[in-house]
Amino acid sequence: MSSNRMLQFSAGVLLATVTALPAQAVVTPDGGFVALIDSQSNFGDSRKSVVFYDTDDLTKPMFAVFLGWKGLGDSRSPDSIAADPATGDIYVLATDRDATSTIQVPSPGFNIPDNTEDDYDLLRVNFNALYNDWVTNQGSAYVTYSGDGNQQEGGANPNPVTFRVDNGDAANAFDKIGEIARPTSYSPAEFFNTKLEFIEDGRLIAVDRPIAPIADFSGTGGVHNSANDIPANDSQVRLIQRVSTSPGLATVNAGNDEGGFNQGTTESWESVVLGQVNMDATTTSEVEDIAWYRDPVTGVQGIWIGESDGGTNDTVTPANNAGDGISFFEVTNFTGTAGNGLKELNIGGGPTFPDGFVLDDNPVLDPAANNGAHDRTFVDPNDGSLVIIESGFFDNPQDEPSVITRQITSYDDGTG
């Protein structure tokens, strides 16, 4: 069976893939599927929906799931996405925010209030149940599933399908399984989305946005707030874990920045801060993507982080370039920050080593230009090596994206 892989693209396209699902009692695509968050009303459908594609035919979507309303007059803002490769379940981290009074009021049965306007909603989409219904009951026609058939956010599919347990369906289109606490000072209008990766059943890892607003694009024209742009306010690496398969056991700390709530959830999930990114020495880090990996040989585990630092292709004066950085954030425990952090990379002659490296647009042509701008960093599940898609967008002249591979000799060289 081919390797399963979870992907999440930042920069406007949030995506997860699963290849070669295990045999199950329901119908599944032969080659796997792709799920992405639609924020632009593609195909005339509702914004804030998850759209599914069969990897054997990416020219058109199979079906969509509208993620609905979190409460009276409030819409959810899906932010990041991850996939469970064993079941196909899609996890979505959504940001609570205030919405205008013109937004359609949800039906009473679907009006699920929240404990606080400043948390994350954790949603789970049941792919197998929806795919099976799509094939057996919908004739494989493009439809949009939702909890109440109410699709009013930037468009509407002419074929809405209500999919809820209380309507006799086998499963909900999606469930709100948890409310995740996080710093209330965080600005939901920050440019970089949260990042989410699946670790194992009951465990996800996330990188949130900076814990103080650096720039607010909701009404200030994106004005940069340099006073908040400091390492102390950097994005946090956060474990999101299930406490119980039943609601009611999530708790929060005194500052409401760790733990979880229970309002309208079907399960109990909490968050724990594992550390801060801190890839920039004097400012907050601009995290573009993460990739989880657990090395079966050494037991070392953590996330590779891709961080934006410009990536302009200045071939005349290479010192002017600020290529995107890549670092490995090692997780030694899931209970707190102790022992977690950026791991030194054995590059160069030492005796001190860096905790990251900078991309080059073309390392064969100039391995010291520091002018690379990455689109996505993957981890090869077979040997842990990096596969980096280097963007051609900033090239002068513009070029096709490059694929850069970097072998990892060992995830632990014996020195810790």
Provide a compact summary of the structure.
With 416 residues, the protein is mainly β.
Overall description:
Strands 1-2-3-4-9-10 form a six-stranded mixed sheet, with helices on one face. A six-stranded antiparallel sheet has the order 5-6-7-8-11-15, with no helix packed on it. The two termini are 34 Å apart. The protein folds into two domains: 1-285, no CATH class; 290-416, no CATH class. It is mostly beta strands and 416 residues long. It is 2% helix and 32% strand.
Number of domains: 2
Instruction: Give the helix level as a range of percent.
Output: under 10%
Biggest β-sheet: count, sense, barrel? 6 strands, mixed
Provide the gyration radius in Å.
21 Å
Tally the helices: what do you get?
A: 1
**Structural class by sheet pairing and helices:** mainly beta
Determine the N-to-C terminus distance.
34 Å
How many strands in all?
24
Q: Estimate the strand proportion.
A: 25-35%
What's the shape? Answer: globular
**H and E order:** EEEEEEEEHEEEEEEEEEEEEEEEE
What is the residue-averaged pLDDT? 79
Q: pLDDT below 50 for ≥5 consecutive residues: which ranges?
A: 1-13, 19-26, 99-104
Strand order of the largest sheet: 1-2-3-4-9-10
List the main descriptive attributes of the protein structure presented here.
6-stranded antiparallel beta sheet, disordered N terminus, 1 helix, mainly beta, single chain, 6-stranded mixed beta sheet, 416 residues, 2 domains
